[in-house]
Design brief:
51% of the residues lie in helices and 16% in strands. The protein is α+β, with helices and mostly antiparallel strands. A 4-stranded mixed beta sheet has the order 3-6-7-10. One of its GO terms (molecular function) is flavin adenine dinucleotide binding.
Length: 391
């Protein structure tokens, strides 16, 4: 793994810089206005997601053959960081559609599945309406232990009959397409899990009320129920029993997206704290001149930069067809813990002002916490890392 670093180019291409700048401009002009209100009201950022789709950011890494932008993962990391600095609720919708749904179908779907589902997902629209996806793995009894699937897909000849419950689903109500992991043969455990493309509009699909969350409050998180949903045979992805492998391989890429989101939250909090420290005065001088604050900012800058390097390393591994399981887990655990620490320190630097909404850092602190939990907790990442380095 370390040897691979010798081949990394730390100079961004002109195209990558264009993508970063476009994402930065979008975040400041389209996401920042109303971000506090959307957070308070748990209002899904539909307008922002639709405009992201117009920019090609909902299918960034998908081949142009299927309506995507055909960009590399490093460009995706740069875009995710910039948008996450301002609104993590927008960036998580973008991450799920890119890293999990589009990637999963493009990497493992049939040509027919790609034409029917991937193309509109990559474009973020179909017939003029928003068209995004969701990834349905977690259940009431299956969080970190993803093998304990209780959702059942029964083979009844012409189709599968899907029954069960999935929870904590990002884009749960706004998605048109779900990738659903379900047990088809409980006798063989994880080897009996399959993955299906399910349309939200099908009879028997029920979306529960929106979860009232601590952070990323504008993203729509729901429990999804399936009651005798008929799933056509051609909507299974891969061979029988491929579902668990599909989930693990797809989540490895998803962790790059969430690591980049965490990086953005951390860098956003750092930038706000730095600017505040330059103007806020205490004891006759700007607080940046007090060593206690200066050292906090030094540590924040260092951890943010280290997180950025880990995210770009994971992106490099993915783009160069290396095994990125280890690097994506390292990036996610370090960046997510950096986001939590940095945003907390940003609140501390702001003092009482950091505790009120208009200064934004309290929202970043609330948003940071989930990056340590979803798409694999920090504890799970350490399991992945330790098993890899010790085997």
């Amino acid at each position: 793994m370390i040897d691979n670093c010798l081949f990394m180019d730390f100079q961004f291409t002109e195209e990558q810089l264009m993508i970063r700048n476009a994402a930065r401009d979008f975040a400041r002009t389209e996401c920042l206005p109303g971000v506090i209100e959307r957070d308070e009201k748990m209002q899904f950022p539909r307008e922002q997601i639709e405009k992201l789709a117009e920019l090609g950011f909902m299918g960034m890494m998908v081949s142009p053959e299927y309506g995507g932008a055909g960009l590399d993962t490093a460009s995706y990391v740069l875009a995710m960081e910039e948008i996450s600095k301002i609104d993590a609720s927008v960036s998580v919708c973008m991450s799920v559609n890119n890293s999990l749904v589009c990637y999963g179908i493009e990497a493992y779907g049939t040509e027919e599945q790609k034409r029917k589902y991937l193309t509109p997902l990559a474009q973020g629209k179909k017939d003029g309406e928003l068209y995004i996806g969701a990834f349905l793995l977690s259940e009431p009894e299956a969080g970190s232990d993803a093998t304990s699937q209780r959702t059942i897909a029964e083979d009844v000849g012409d189709y599968y009959l899907l029954n069960g419950t999935k929870n904590w689903i990002t884009n749960g109500n706004s998605a048109s397409v779900y990738l659903v992991m379900a047990q088809t043969d409980a006798a063989v455990g994880s080897k009996g899990i399959d993955v299906f493309i399910v349309e939200k509009s099908w009879p028997g699909v029920v979306v529960s009320g929106k979860e009232n969350k601590m952070g990323i409050r504008a993203s729509d998180t729901h429990t999804i129920l399936f009651n005798d949903v008929k799933v056509p045979k051609e909507n299974r992805i891969g061979a029988h029993g491929f579902g668990f492998t599909f989930a693990m391989k797809t989540l490895a890429g998803g962790r790059i997206g969430i690591a980049s989101q965490a990086l953005g939250i951390a860098s956003g909090a750092y930038e706000l704290a730095k600017e505040y420290a330059k103007t806020r005065k205490a004891f006759g001088t700007e607080i940046m001149n007090h060593q206690a604050i200066a050292f906090k900012l030094a540590d924040m800058a260092t951890r943010v930069e280290a997180s950025r390097m880990l995210c770009l390393k994971a992106a490099w591994d993915k783009d160069n067809h290396q095994d990125y399981t280890l690097s994506s887990s390292m990036a996610k655990v370090f960046a997510s813990e950096t986001a939590m620490w940095t945003s907390t320190e940003a609140v501390q630097i702001h003092g009482g002002y950091g505790y009120v909404k208009e200064y934004h850092v309290e929202r970043l602190m609330r948003d940071a916490k989930i990056t340590q939990i979803y798409e694999g907790t920090s504890e799970v990442q350490r399991i992945v890392i330790s098993r890899t380095i010790l085997k």
